[in-house]
Design brief:
The structure holds two protein chains of two kinds. Helices cover 38% and strands 36% of the residues of chain A. By secondary structure, chain A is of the alpha+beta class. In chain A, strands 2, 3, 5, 7 and 8 form a five-stranded antiparallel β-sheet that branches. A three-stranded antiparallel β-sheet of chain A has the order 1-6-4, with helices on both faces. A five-stranded mixed β-sheet of chain B has the order 2-1-5-3-4. In chain B, strand 3 and strand 4 form a beta hairpin. The longest helix of chain B has 9 residues. Chain B: This is Molybdopterin synthase sulfur carrier subunit.
Chain lengths: 138, 85
């Protein structure tokens, strides 16, 4: 993460705020023990969709830079899933843009999580209505 | 016109394949028409698309509502609501 922040801020003096969000694979979900998470993606669309989301964030807020990294494949509890970084002159734009990117990414970026329980049982995680509601407030 | 149809997550598992090429028959103009056509292709398709209102779609890697016309799109994708992040 430090390297990604440095890539946005190196050599610049017009950035006064950097907000980062890291999504991490949990070891428990709804009271169940999770031993792994597999993230499936529609990669070509994910890349296109994440660029569209970043373009929209840059139109709405005065950002000096932004980064989105989303992992896919098999992850274990404690592994990072997603990193969003927003850099701006002042904190409000960076906070809001990072929050907007995460809310939109949750409902628009083509990734699907399947959870593996300790016994090997695997289930697709259902989308949450509160994620849709969070995206709608923007 | 030949299109590539892609399936993801539990939709892929239920259909039993990740993608297929298909010549769209006459009368299939919208994504809803295509879903109705697919559901007649076998039990696995019928089962995959049985949960009305849940399946989402993309035309050429862009989200599209199910009443959207397929038009000249070459790649059609069907998937459940997204759960990334």
């Amino acid at each position: 993460m430090a390297a990604e922040i440095a890539a946005l801020t190196a050599g610049r003096t017009d950035i006064g705020a950097v907000v980062t969000f890291t999504g991490i694979c949990r070891g428990q979900d709804d009271g169940r023990d999770v031993c792994a998470l597999t993230l499936e993606t529609y990669e070509e669309m994910a890349l296109a969709e994440l660029s569209r989301l970043e373009a929209e964030a840059r139109q709405r807020w005065p950002l000096q830079g932004s980064t989105i990294i989303h992992r896919h494949g098999r992850l274990q509890p404690g592994d990072n899933i997603v990193l969003v970084i927003c850099a701006s002159a002042h904190r409000h734009a960076a906070f809001e843009a990072a929050s907007f990117l995460m809310d939109y990414l949750k409902t628009r970026a083509p990734f699907w999580k399947a959870e593996e329980a300790a016994g090997g049982e695997r289930r697709w995680i259902a989308a949450k209505t509160e994620d849709d509601e969070a995206a709608e407030r923007w | 016109m030949s299109v590539t149809i892609k399936y993801f997550a539990w939709l892929r598992e239920r259909v039993g394949k990740a993608e297929e090429d298909m010549i769209l028959p006459a009368g299939v103009n919208t994504l809803t028409d295509l879903i109705a056509h697919l559901r007649r292709q076998g039990e696995e398709y019928d089962h995959a698309f049985a949960t009305e209102g849940v399946v989402r779609a993309a035309l050429d890697k862009r989200h599209a509502p199910l009443d959207a016309a397929i038009g000249g799109a070459r790649e059609i994708a069907f998937f459940p609501p997204m759960t990334g992040g």
